[in-house]
User: Fold these one by one.
Assistant:
Number 1:
Amino acid sequence: MGCSLYIIEPPEGEPNHAQLMDKPGAMWRWPDLDRDGREAWVIVLPNRAGIWWTTYLADGPDGGQMWDVTGEPPNITVKPSINAGDGPGVGNWHGWITDGAMTP
């Protein structure tokens, strides 16, 4: 199941994840997470898999590196794919963001 990214007003204070999980594709600017001169945009992932942000550090063999993010929000492209969670089902999502569209 895919969805499109769309910009919302930033939640006040710390985001309440439970309230946001039913808004996949919602994204907002969060300057507190800016890193290395890059703007942080927080994105609600599909399948109630949580939130991810554009300055998040990747795990794995290249751990500590940020994803490659291009384009203007909400029409961004992220490489490589995002893998949130550790298995199938609710609370997990593996997919791509390409030109503002999230696809598994």
Number 2:
Amino acid sequence: MGRFDNQRSNRSGGFNRGFRSNFGPREMHKAVCDECKQECEVPFKPTEGKPVYCRDCFRKKNPNPRF
């Protein structure tokens, strides 16, 4: 059997800080968190009527993300 220790994620030294190896740097957009009201940056263009959360508030709402 092969090793299943996710070698692919270790090639970049862990978390990639917004750089997608196949697509270049990720475009970030300024927003205001709907929970704590702090200014933050998100990797998508915010849509009016949909909540936006900073990284900390998002983690509080989703303690076990799928990624």
Number 3:
Amino acid sequence: MRILITGGNGNISKILLKNISNEFDITFITRNEVDLLNELSVSNYLMDKDFDVLIHTAIKGGIRTREETGEVVYENLIMFENLIKYSHKFKLIINFDSGAIYDRSTDIKCRDEPELKTVPKDYYGFSKYLIYKRSFQYNNVVNFRIFNIFHANEESSRFIKSCFIAKKNKTIITIFQDKYFDFVYEDDFVKIVKHYLNHFSENLPKTINISYTKKYKLSEIALMILGDNNLIEIHNSTLTNNYCGNGNLLNHLNLELDGLENSIKKYEKLLNI
């Protein structure tokens, strides 16, 4: 199986490179090889190429700490449109969706995949919303709705890794707003990707939340790691602005996923903390 992956320098691409490159014929492209914002660049690259699967990870925006403009919407839509023009060249296209599609200004708690109550107000979420709607015009496009994937090489500021660093240093973890929040470990994420790659001819869900069925608050995850409530400082515990999806569709695939608790144990061994 020949697989083309966009966004070759991103975290998701690096996770896939590490975990599936020995099983599939993988080609990664970055903006240096192909400018996805340029229709001619995409056309020249794909014209004489043969792939079975496209995994589209290239994205603009989505980082909460960075201010965004309408350029995020424009660039995400243009990249998708320039690629989807060649949808006929792929048996399967995996588009990486986001929990932001549910509108992060609202309370997102255990939402079903089609349960889009409001149009997202932020540029990144709005772009994901439009791409999701567009995907229904193509039978070979599936959407993986990601909330948060934690992995070995993530930044030390990310919540789960920062909890382990706090454990090592015996320092306080501050939670400004406690909430239910979805995290999925990279090993389980890879199992889901491989399942779709190996079974895409079957009747798999077109859009699926990358979410475990069991939900945890940030404070519960911190306690799971730190083992000491005295090291956790919560400023607001009202549980507003949760960020988690309903994991039933994923659960019905009957994959042998580790789940959050076992994944955190594996992650701790990996970090050697």
